[in-house]
Design brief:
It contains 14 helices and 13 strands. It folds into 2 domains: 140 residues, Glycerate kinase, domain 1 (Rossmann fold, 3-Layer(aba) Sandwich); 221 residues, Alpha-Beta Complex (Glycerate kinase, domain 2), CATH 3.90.1510. The protein is 36% helix and 18% strand. The chain has 377 residues and is of the alpha/beta class.
Length: 377
């Protein structure tokens, strides 16, 4: 019997790799001789780097980078098993978690640190970048990242502009002659699960600005600056990034990547499934097991279990999902390739206990699923 375990992480308790081990431990109590493959997966958000590193036998690289408010922060990225692909989460250096709530102000925050992480990866020999957008503290259109990589922004008097949200409205000219050629020439895949344009009612600022600390006045000012940046890119380089779906992701970082590289924006789960070669791994499987910490109606919108299920259903393989808990309308997943959902929590207890017992409870659940499967055959 061949079983493929392809889960996401259970946030705050288990990494995707640890979820794989817990599930296998339970299954082995029933199926000692089974062929069991681990394929830790993620959907492009938090945990994607770790999952890709684990799935490809790569390594995590830790470094210090410039945080959103210019203070040094601990950051990281992954070099995958091929030694040439770097997986980067923008939030690692430029995430909202690096800024205290009282200090959040997208006029001041910058994505410069993400550029430093990219440079570090290029210096390590990366020729392909997988960049996960999401969780950013910034609304700078990616100008901070670009500045770190050699792009210069000037006002109408020829003075360098601070690459942050407030600086966008001052941009008169852009000099990309110093842009690192390695960045321009490498393959860039962008994990982007939103379709917001750069500006306007549904743009980066209006949609995500408030959670980053923007007031109503800030939103009007920042959106005008974002539009100015987009117009300058169009005028100087002939690239329309204002109206492209996904350009508004991560405070306009999507637009910067589209405007200055040959980046391709794709749903995070699609990039991850392609990278870990899930399609070939599930061939010939009798059962695929996926899961995440919580399964609910949102799971069908590009989350890991959906991507895994759709890949498995290409060859009609049964799919079981395991979760820490379920939420409203979780049954929606049954219309998208998941055949059954099981919950790991065995009794009522608080969240801290749920996290502490997650590994044991998941193993016990896997054993019960295996026993149920066995008697059904």
């Amino acid at each position: 019997m061949k079983i493929v375990i392809a889960p996401d992480s259970f946030k705050e308790s288990l990494t995707a790799k640890e979820v794989c081990h817990a599930i296998e431990n339970g299954l082995r109590r029933v199926w000692q001789e089974a062929e069991i493959l681990h394929v830790p997966v993620a959907d492009g958000g938090e945990g994607t780097v770790q999952s890709l590193v684990d799935a490809t036998q790569g390594k995590i690289i830790e470094l210090t980078a410039t945080g959103p408010l210019k203070k040094q922060v601990d950051a990281f990225y992954g070099i995958l098993g091929d030694g040439k692909t770097a997986a980067i989460e923008m939030a690692a250096a430029s995430g909202l978690h690096h800024v205290d709530h009282a200090l959040r102000d997208p006029k001041l925050t910058s994505s410069y640190g993400t550029g430093e992480v990219i440079l570090h990866a290029l210096d390590n020999g990366a020729t392909k970048l997988i960049i996960g957008l999401g969780g950013s503290a910034t609304n700078d259109g990616g100008t901070g990242m670009l500045d770190a990589l050699g792009v210069k922004f000037f006002d109408k008097e020829g003075q360098r502009i601070e690459p942050n949200g407030a600086g966008l409205s001052e941009i008169a000219t852009i000099d990309n002659s110093g842009l690192d050629s390695r960045f321009v020439n490498c393959e860039v895949l962008v994990a982007c699960d939103v379709d917001n344009p750069l500006c306007g009612e549904h743009g980066a600022t209006a949609t995500f600005g408030p959670q980053k600390g923007a007031t109503e006045q800030d939103i009007e000012f920042l959106d005008a600056g974002m539009r100015n940046f987009g117009e300058k890119v169009q005028q100087q380089f002939g690239k329309d990034i204002i109206n492209v779906a996904g350009a508004g992701a991560a405070g306009g970082m999507g637009g910067a990547l589209l405007g200055f590289t040959s980046a391709e924006l794709k749903p995070g789960i699609d990039i991850v499934i392609e990278t870990v070669e899930l399609g070939s791994q599930v061939l010939g499987a009798d059962l695929v097991i996926t899961g995440e910490g919580r399964i609910d109606w949102q799971t069908v919108h590009g989350k890991t279990p959906m991507g895994v299920a759709q890949e498995a259903k290409k060859t009609n393989i049964p799919v079981i999902a395991m979760a820490g808990c379920v939420g409203k309308d979780y049954q929606a997943v049954y219309d998208y390739g998941i055949d059954a959902v099981f919950v790991a929590i065995p009794r009522a207890f608080d969240l801290a206990t749920a996290f502490a017992e997650a590994e044991a409870n998941l193993a016990n659940l896997a054993e019960n699923v295996a026993r149920t499967w066995k008697i059904s055959k």
